[in-house]
Amino acid sequence: MRCRKCRERAVLEIPRHHTAFCKTCLTDFVCAQAERAITEEKMFAKADHVLVAVSGGKDSLSLLDILHKLGYQADAFYVDLGIGEYSRQSRAKVEQFTKARGVALHIHELKEDEGAGINELADLVHRPTCSVCGTLKRYHFNRTAVELGYHVLATGHNLDDEASRLLGNVLHWQTEYLDKQGPVLPASMEGFAKKVKPLFRLAEREIAAYAIVNRIDYIVEECPNSKGAKMLLYKDILNRLESESPGTKQAFYWGFLAKQEADAKTRPSMTDNDQAVLHPCPTCGQPTTAETCSYCKLMARAKKDGPAPVRM
Amino acid sequence: MKVLLNHPVREVEMKGPRRVRELLKELSLLPETVLVVRGDELVTEDDMLRDDDRIEIRPVMSGG
Ligand SMILES: [Zn+2]
Ligand SMILES: [Zn+2]
To answer: Is A104 a domain residue?
Structure first.
């Protein structure tokens, strides 16, 4: 197979765009799609300081790589969840990557700061690990971005991540979550970082291919906690649909975004909505809709039920 | 040829020559969910794999 642009040997076929690319043209394509997302959705500008939440996986490390190629100022933030060998390996990938490129890396270590790893914390509060993990990561992503003065927090979520999450929300008609499914969440109030997903136009497979041809050493292993997770099932189903009719994922997610945008004119803005319901958490000062924020609630519960040294 | 698979990591021996498309079919893998790497080069579905190739099947879903 030949590259449709330059006739070199192709490394990836992209049926949803009726094309195939060589290494160089694939890299150009991926960077152009990210740039388009960043500018069209007004995510950030060249003068802004971007904090990229990295996991050691292909998406977040590729995102960091792409942003630097495009000339943006981006640093890395890693949350060490303390999941044994998996965390050790993924942290090592992040440290190697950032060190080799001279990228600033901030680390939050659960065992150090919360006094326990994610599995122990989830056990203490009797909640599913993935849900506790989500709460903790969201909290620290936001807090770190705000406290360190970054303009925006970027995550490596791709088209497959967003389409599968949308499928999950629609299957259960969790319409209250749909508002927050766009690629940009505004910094609607003091203490809230703007959050963006520059890879939402790119399929997971395109990013994995980008990582391989650009020799990005990422953790291939899955998080041991995510085995059998619902999201993987939704991704699998969408992949089967995509194989039968290329373009299904983007039609589903981008179509949803277009509808949201059309509706936005007649509805109150997300900022107005947020400001109506959010206030600072009395314990930590982070914005929350509840009396105490979900992080502080979680930590209070872990501390009460825990035998030992869970810190706040 | 030696074929390295992930999730979980394991190695299988397959006979060459055969096309990537056929290899994936034989392993019951959906092309949309994997990438095929020969040595350290990405190959496409119509590429021919030889008996002495070292192949890695890289799942595209990974990490968190
Ligand atoms: Zn080309
Ligand atoms: Zn709080």
So the answer is: yes
Interchain proximity A90–B63, CB inside 8 Å:
yes
Residue among B30, B31, B60 minimizing CB distance to A208: B60
Q: How many domains does chain A have?
A: 1
A–B CB contacts, 8 A cutoff, strictly below: 79
Task: CATH number of the domain at A126, please.
Answer: 3.40.50.620
pLDDT in tens, A175-206: 888 988 999 999 988 899 999 999 999 999 99
Residue numbers in B near A212 (CB within 8 A):
35, 37, 42, 58
Q: Is any Cβ of chain A less than 8 angstroms from the Cβ of B44?
A: yes
How many domains in chain B?
1
Taking each helix axis from N to C end, the angle separating A230-244 and A159-171, rounded to the nearest 10 degrees, works out to 110
Q: How far is B39 from chain A (nearest CA, A)?
A: 12
Strands B10-13 and B18-19 come out as unpaired
CATH number of the domain enclosing B12: 3.10.20.30
Give the pLDDT confidence score for residue A306 in this predicted structure.
61
- State the complex-level ipTM: 0.95
Q: Which residues of A touch B35 (CB under 8 A)?
A: 12, 205, 208-209, 212
Determine the Cα–Cα distance for residues A105 and A79; give it in Å rounded to an integer: 11
Chain A residue numbers with beta carbons less than 8 Å from the beta carbon of B40 are 215
Q: For the stretch A184-196, what's the b/e string if a residue is b when 16 or more beta carbons lie within 10 angstroms of its beta carbon?
A: bbebbeebbbbbb
- Residue pair A238/A248 in contact by the 8 Å Cβ criterion: yes
